[in-house]
Write a structure and sequence with these properties.
single chain, 203 residues, 0% strand, mainly alpha, globular
Length: 203
């Protein structure tokens, strides 16, 4: 959080003194700070346990709160463009070590477990929407929109395998299976229902 506050103060101070920092340079600085925070996790591990990923999230939240909406919006656009390439790389790296034999071995049991997890996920979405002004159809669309489970599975599915755990290949295979089931399910569900469940507000 301190890193996010320092970066927001640096950007605002530079702008106030007519030393405008380009958005591309801001993205580079943010990425550098994020990698530094991840490295601090390893450096500090013998002394005190810290989470580099939580530190990165805290930095981003603090930076957003300390910046004007226009600046945070432009940074979001820049990172969105970076994500287009990073997303492809992420899924390629996840798919490369998958052993199809473990996926076939998981079979129907893994698919049933994934579908059961989706039911709990849908219930969680509905609970989160309690007290909101959304109508029933809109809440149903939110449930459908939260069906895809891809990015997180791709990011952490290979961790047990990288740690050398015996269950690593199976965990990775089930994570990939979850992506293959939920991603098209959510995409098709949204494409087929958005016109019936949502209403476009008048301009």
């Amino acid at each position: 959080m301190g890193a996010g506050w320092l970066l927001s103060r640096f950007f605002e101070t530079a702008y106030a003194h007519a030393h405008y920092v380009r958005n591309s340079m801001k993205v580079i600085l943010l990425l550098g700070a994020a990698f530094l925070l991840l490295a601090v996790e390893s450096w500090a591990k013998p002394v005190v346990p810290v989470s580099g990923l939580l530190a990165v999230v805290g930095m981003a939240c603090t930076l957003k709160m300390g910046s004007i909406p226009f600046v945070s919006g432009r940074l979001s656009e820049k990172f969105g463009k970076l994500w287009l390439a990073a997303e492809v790389l992420l899924f390629v790296l996840v798919g490369a070590p998958v052993d199809i034999r473990y996926t076939l071995e998981a079979g129907a049991g893994a698919a049933a477990m994934i579908l059961l997890a989706l039911l709990f996920r849908a219930a969680g979405v509905l609970l989160c929407l309690l007290g909101t002004p959304l109508e029933g159809k809109e809440r149903l669309f939110c449930v459908i929109a939260y069906l895809p489970k891809a990015t997180v599975q791709a990011a952490i599915g290979s961790v047990p395998l990288a740690l050398g755990l015996p269950c690593g290949p199976m965990v990775l295979s089930v994570a990939v299976l979850a992506i293959l089931i939920t991603a098209p399910l959510g995409a098709l569900g949204m494409d087929l229902t958005y016109q019936r469940l949502l209403q476009k507000e008048a301009a």
